[in-house]
Amino acid sequence: MYVLLKTRSSFVITTKIYWGGQAETERGLSRKHIIEGLRGSLSRLQLDYVDIVFANRNDVNSPMEEIVRAMTFVINQGMAMYWGTSRWSAMEIMEAYSVARQFNLIPPVCEQAEYHYFQRDKVEVQLPELYHKIGVGAMTWSPWLVD
């Protein structure tokens, strides 16, 4: 079901990049897949840009500098306003931030972490230091309802 967004500015629209097709170049966080994957997502969404593009899990096969440079590129091209991480460790987020600062690139603005009654440690213990040190925010997923 498609919904026409007449007031685009009142919504925050996000998408995630990591999984794709069967080919090795159609998944992960290589520059090629970040750019082509986001273009595909924008086409499917019928949008010119998203507010946040998430790197959904870190890719050990792609150098952090390549990931940060590719995310900076898609932002500079107007395909996304910001980028964030999803399911990254605090150490990986800090590495991305450090690479961004070292090369004058755009750092991630938020981490999308699993957060519910049974999974609280990351958001409440591991990430608060990053909230205060580098200003990264949190966006949660998979909340559980407990009676």
UniProtKB/TrEMBL annotation:
Residues 7-143 form the NADP-dependent oxidoreductase domain. The keyword NADP applies. SUPFAM superfamilies: NAD(P)-linked oxidoreductase (SSF51430). GO terms for molecular function: oxidoreductase activity; potassium channel regulator activity; transmembrane transporter binding. InterPro entries: K_chnl_volt-dep_bsu_KCNAB-rel, NAD(P)_OxRdtase_dom_sf, NADP_OxRdtase_dom. One of its GO terms (biological process) is regulation of potassium ion transmembrane transport. Keywords: NADP, Oxidoreductase. Belongs to the shaker potassium channel beta subunit family. This is NADP-dependent oxidoreductase domain-containing protein. It comes from Mugilogobius chulae.
